[in-house]
């Protein structure tokens, strides 16, 4: 067990050193370390390659399409001035001081039905434009939104992690949603606007120069206007929300099938791209060649994002296949601690070791299940254990987490800046979630 944990620690350190000290491109560094880590565990070379292929394929089968479509939509809205119009209107309505709070609320609301990566990809161009308009670091606006999205992704159904945990340990979905909101909202506030306001001016968070847009050299069109741009940004979010509602509340039939089809992230983003294209062509008079060139150029930076995320997923899969998660599970299981603390620590250790929040949650739930049954916990306490598992699976997003690379690439941060901002934000959110659950525990 000691050797397994040592290899995991050394592999994580190797990625960090290669990227930060020797400036190796993250895509290459992750693939090199993934190969060497698999071999260090004694796996057959072909099995290591299969794990890398499996991890990359599973991540990119969904994420690559969403990143590509999101980049094209963002490129169209940037080139037509749509994102700029939304950002200026939001700043005018909320003011710069209230903007982080508004973004946190947006992250909580949008994060209930939407996957973390989908919502972030759709809204990332807005964060960049807000930073340019307000002449602030992008992290000042990004962290409040990210904290809201992450807290909901970790604690509330219909997200896969909380649903899987609820099924494994028998948590009541209504109580899970209730305690998830009670614990998740304070976590989003502390890790988002509070953290951003206190520390965004600290050294290492990046300079105050405007962050890079998707493609600053892309051709421009006449202004699309505020309302069409807002519709284009909200339509995919609304359609995905409708699909989630249909999946939960509608019976089998045509209505459910149609809503789930148009509300799939692929379909929703395609429809939004078509809407913007038609508006720019028919109402603004932009040439089709210009529109096509904008979308093509927007895909160039998206390609790098896709490759880095895929390499991160490959590294994560090698760690999962190595059995590192099971070794960590055994180490934590040997400690005599309460169910709530045990669930949190187990999820946290597995999360740090192999990166996947969902795998960490499922692993922790599988082991905590027998302890919960033996302890005869009340339904409220079972729901709080689910919160503790989600909290542990949220902390320390780093190089083996695809979310780390998404945040880094979309916000134009260096790896060191991502550690100081996003990794700390995720860790603070997880700790606050757990602290809230621990505070409520004696009273239920």
Structural write-up:
- The chain has 444 residues and is an all-alpha fold.
- The chain has one domain.
- Helix content is 80%, strand content 0%.
- It has 18 helices and no strands.
- The chain starts with a helix and ends with a helix.
Please give the radius of gyration in angstroms.
22 Å
- Shape label: globular
Distance between the termini: 37 Å
Quaternary organization: single chain
Low-pLDDT ranges: none
Number of helices: 18
Q: Secondary-structure element sequence? A: HHHHHHHHHHHHHHHHHH
Profile the largest sheet. Answer: none
Which structural traits does this protein have?
444 residues, mainly alpha, 18 helices
Quick structural overview:
This protein is an all-alpha fold and 444 residues long. It has one domain. The chain has 18 helices and no strands.
Which helices and strands, and how do they pair?
Elements: H1 2-20, H2 26-40, H3 45-79, H4 82-111, H5 116-134, H6 138-155, H7 160-169, H8 173-199, H9 226-249, H10 254-262, H11 265-284, H12 288-322, H13 324-333, H14 339-354, H15 357-375, H16 379-392, H17 402-411, H18 415-440
Helix pairs in contact: 1-2, 2-3, 2-12, 3-5, 3-11, 3-12, 4-5, 4-6, 4-8, 4-9, 5-6, 5-17, 6-8, 6-18, 7-15, 7-16, 8-16, 8-18, 9-10, 9-11, 12-17, 13-14, 13-15, 14-15, 14-16, 15-16, 16-18
